[in-house]
Amino acid sequence: MKLTYNYQHVGDVLLVTLKKAENPEYEFHEGLTVIRDGDEIIGLNIFEASKHIELPDAVNIEADEKILGSINALLASRGVAKIDPDLSPKFVVGKVTEKSKHPDADKLNVCKVDVGEEELQIVCGAPNVDSGQHVVVAKVGAIMPDGLYIKPSTLRGVDSQGMICSRKELNLEDDGVKGIYVLDDSYEVAQPFEVK
Which of 168, 183, 164, 94 is nearest to 123 (CA)? Predict the structure, then answer.
């Protein structure tokens, strides 16, 4: 779940992104636009948001139970079904525990990445990826700064559950390194990584 609130440029509107869809449908209620993919709510535009939700002074807001409760109270008051998104961090520090060549692509590697509660298999095309590295992982359900929604995929016949990120993909200043953003060892596995 991605929350964006840019009062200076957009006004008192909270943009809630849950998922991406090719052909979204829009439903209008008093002070609220509900964005759907079929029956599933995939986004909301909440107008006069500050009247309904206590918002921190930030453009990208970390969703928590309190904000979700306020959003659901507003939805209920408009006769709209509540949302129940996974609020666990979607950008976390991972450790590459294993790297092997992709069986059907010279420039791809199949990596095993420890993210704490699980080990993910991620296909990565970065030339600098290697075992032992601490990296930033966008887990399934993450919404990248450019709007890309991370979902399970299959790359040349191999399943991939997330993405190992570069500085550019994280909207960070380019350090001139081609490939993924390798963190130093002060970062801990499963630690949330803040994305602007």
Answer: 164
